[in-house]
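hey m, so remember when u said the tokens were messed up on ur end? i reran from scratch. heres the input so u can diff it against urs
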Amino acid sequence: MLITERVLSNPHICGIQLDVSGNEFASGTLDNQPFYNTNISQGNFKSVYYSNGSARFQETTSETKNGILYAQRVTIKFPSNDEQRSLRLEELRKVKFLSMKFSNDQTVIIGRNDFFQNASPKVTVSSNEKTTEVEFRSTSIFPIGFFENTNAYGFVYEFPVSFLEPY
């Protein structure tokens, strides 16, 4: 039984990337959480700057009349005295997906709220004279899954693997 097995890692967030293209979809591999995990056909993830140790992730559930709803929240902070602050904030507001890389080499994707995404994460900003905090919120019908990189060699997801083998 899965719930009795011990989880052997306690990772930390070591990288965050944002994507504004919106081409992520559910994984098709049947052996590894096919509905929860995410593949990317033509993603364009870019690293985002944030202050060391400031990234936070939280996922909570709530009961609705239609079932369980998962709320994911990612928060980052950076200094408020950035000369490009206004442009940086406008770019952050365009995000469709957010990926977080953990210290155990696993990556999760936030923003897929159904088999295909139908709503971008909500972005809120809070600033004072020292720091700016940006919060990305997404609600989903399932918990976050891991990212499966089918795009590692520039091939799209639908490209058959058998074509890669030499004759």
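this time it looks ok to me. The helical segments are 85-92. if urs says something different then somethings off w ur setup not the seq
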